[in-house]
Each structure stands twice: as C-alpha cells, then as structure tokens.
Amino acid sequence: MPRLFVAAFPTPEIADVLATIPVDDSSGVRMVPPENWHVTLRFLGDADTATVIERLRATATPFAEAEMGPHLEHLGPRQVVAPVAGVDHLAASVTRATADLGDPPRHSFRGHLTVARLRRGATSRLPGEPVGGRFPVDEIVLVESTLSDTGSRYEAVARFSTVRAV
After folding, report:
1. CB atoms within 10 A of CB 161
2. How far is Cα 65 from Cα 83, in angstroms, rounded to an integer?
3. Which of 8, 83, 132, 166 could anchor a disulfide with 39, C-beta 3.0 to 4.6 Å?
4. pLDDT tens across 12-69, in order?
5. Phosphoesterase HXTX domain: which residues (predicted)?
6. Contact 69, 132 (CB under 8 A)
7. Which CATH architecture has domain 3-161?
8. What pTM value is reported for the model?
9. Is residue 165 exposed (0-12), middle (13-18) or buried (19+ Cβ within 10 Å)?
10. Which residues are catalytic?
C-alpha cells in the first residue's frame, strides 16, 4: 500500500556533496540511492491524497534555508543521516496544516537526510564523515512511497512553492 509524506529535496549542488560520501559496503548496510535523498517534513502514511493537497495548497508554507552537517551521525540504531537544521518552522507549518490527517507524528521533528540504512546488528563506518552545505527550500513535495524488496519507490504527487517573507 502506498504511503504519503511531505518532503524537501536537496538541490543538485547538495546532491553533489552527498555523492562524495564514501560507499559503505559493509554487511548489513544499504546506501540510500541519490534519487531518494530528502528531508521528511511530515510522514502521513495512509491519508487521502486530495485532502492533503487541498490543505497544503491553502497553507502559506514558509521559505527555509536548510543547513546540512557538519558530519554524518546515527539516528537510532538503523539509520545513518546528515543532520539538517533550519527547516523546523517549515515542518511545523506542514504539521499544523495536516494535523488531523494520516498518522500522528510518532516523535518530535528532527531534520535529517538519510544516507544509509542498517540491518539489525549491523555497524557502519560512515558516522563522523564530514558533510555540509546550505540549500534553499523553494518548494515542498507531497510524495507517495511504495515499499518493495529492493527499497522504496518514490513518486512526486504534488509540489508547493514556499513563501519568502517580505
């Protein structure tokens, strides 16, 4: 079953920075493919797509300047992430607009971009690798995710421009 989430995608320049991260081919480590790099602003799960689109269209989503880094770290035992600051207000805006839709947030927002996933008990040499850069979040994207044996397949359902303060 497809699941919905709202995301900010890195610019091509930031994708180039992420592409310099060494591949960890350790057993139990799966690198996230570049086309799946994103910052999840709100995971909705099973929600009515049309209603989510309507809510996000009606929201003046604020512009954000995201700052990635300074190095990769673990987020729980099964993810290696690049921390991303500067998008908390954007995530809060999306969460307010969709508060009664989909799955309620399971934890407080922590901006990050996942670069690797770990099987239970696996270890990675990636935490501590330097990674950094700033990127504008000019739009947010409603994404449909379909899980498969080879990972997730993402499809952009709708895009919404952010609004710069005057």
Report:
1. 11
2. 14
3. 8
4. 999 999 999 999 999 999 999 999 999 999 999 999 999 999 999 999 999 999 999 9
5. 25-62
6. yes
7. Alpha-Beta Complex (3.90)
8. 0.93
9. exposed
10. 38, 112
The residue type found at 62 is P
CB contact set of 150 (below 8 Å; sequence gap of 6+): none
Give the pLDDT of residue 10. Answer: 98
Cβ-based neighbours of 9, under 8 Å, separated by 6 or more: 37, 38, 39, 141
From 23, 36, 26, select the one nearest 155 (Cα to Cα).
36
Residue among 22, 19, 7, 126 at smallest CA distance from 74: 126
User: In this structure, what token pair is assigned to residue 166?
Assistant: 């005057």
Q: What share of the chain is helix, strand, coil (3-state, %, to 5)?
A: 15, 40, 40
φ, ψ (nearest 5 deg) of residue 35: -70, -15
Angle at 158 between CA 44 and CA 161, to 5 degrees: 105
Taking a C-beta distance cutoff of 8 angstroms, is the pair 15, 34 a contact?
yes
- Radius of gyration, CA atoms only, the chain: 16
Residue 154: name the closest of 122, 114, 119, 112 by CA: 114
